[in-house]
Amino acid sequence: MKAALRTLVALSALAALTACGERLQTAGGSKHGTPSYAGPQSPFTAPGWKVDDKTSWEQHLRSRQQYGQNEYTRTH
């Protein structure tokens, strides 16, 4: 009886520890070898942004962070 109880406790502890593991989050990331500013090569891009222009890409990220996604700026 004690051996079965120990086995049950060990298996439940193992199952609990397995559930705490973290999965990899790299399944849907960008392809290797292409920089982020290369863009999707589609017509659905932000107006004024030029594909493969790193400076333009960084400027759009800065302005988006400052004006578009900054909740304090949007509400005041």
TrEMBL record:
Compositional bias segments (type: Basic and acidic residues): 50-61
The keyword Metal-binding belongs to this UniProt entry's keyword annotation: no
Residue numbers spanned by region Disordered: 25-76
Signal peptide boundaries: 1-21
This protein's UniProt keywords: Signal
Name of this protein: Lipoprotein
Presence of the UniProt keyword NADP in the record: no
Compositional bias ranges of the Polar residues kind: 64-76
Transmembrane region(s): none
